[in-house]
Amino acid sequence: MWRRSNSSEENRQQKLLRQFNCTLLPDGTYRTDGLKDRSVSGTVEIPYGVSEIGYKTFWRCEKITKIIIPETVTVLGEYAFVGCVSLKSIALPDSITTVRDGVFSNCQSLTEIEIPFNVEALSDFAFSGCSGLKRLIIPRGVVSVGYETFRGCSSLTELTLPDTLERIGWRCFSECGALKELDIPTGVRSVGEAVFADCDALERVSAPSVKGYDWSPKWLDGCKAEIAYR
Known about the structure:
Layout: H1 7-17, E1 20-24, E2 30-35, E3 42-45, E4 50-53, E5 64-68, E6 75-76, E7 89-91, E8 98-99, E9 121-122, E10 135-137, E11 144-145, E12 158-160, E13 167-168, E14 181-183, E15 190-191, E16 204-207, E17 214-215, E18 226-229
Parallel strand pairs: 2-4, 3-5, 4-6, 5-7, 6-8, 9-11, 10-12, 11-13, 13-15, 14-16, 15-17, 16-18
Antiparallel strand pairs: 1-2
């Protein structure tokens, strides 16, 4: 379990911990199971000693604008921040390895976010409905983006996919109405249906001429962009 020698800092961290409903895990760290006062506004700090931000911890905390996450956190649980419509700032530490389904769904005020380099997969609906998100670089090491991961990111104009990427899920980038172009890396083996559906501004998609073994024949459904094979 995490310890600090500075008693005043330890007291501060314990006070922070009492803001949450928590579960003590076998390794002595904590999982947050919910913020006790969902009407809290402004900045919320998660205490050291928390390793997992659990299911819907910040569900519909509509007045929070900033969340501070310590380097003890390794897991962002399902729908952890769903509906945090005022959230503008959140820095994800490199300790994070797991990003589960719907983590930032409908965080409409979030304009940019940096994905930690230890993350290998962005799960289903992770950024769905993040209508304020403008740019995103998915780091090298990520191998999979899931179903509707970026659906409805209507302000997204810059998106970079890494050369480690192997799988793109069903309707992954659908309704990204501001996206104009995208390069699909050569190593992508699996692409689901309608990945660019309703991307009305999309003009060009660069894709490998030799497709992987599991590209859906309907991957371009709803897409009017020019496809440049290479």
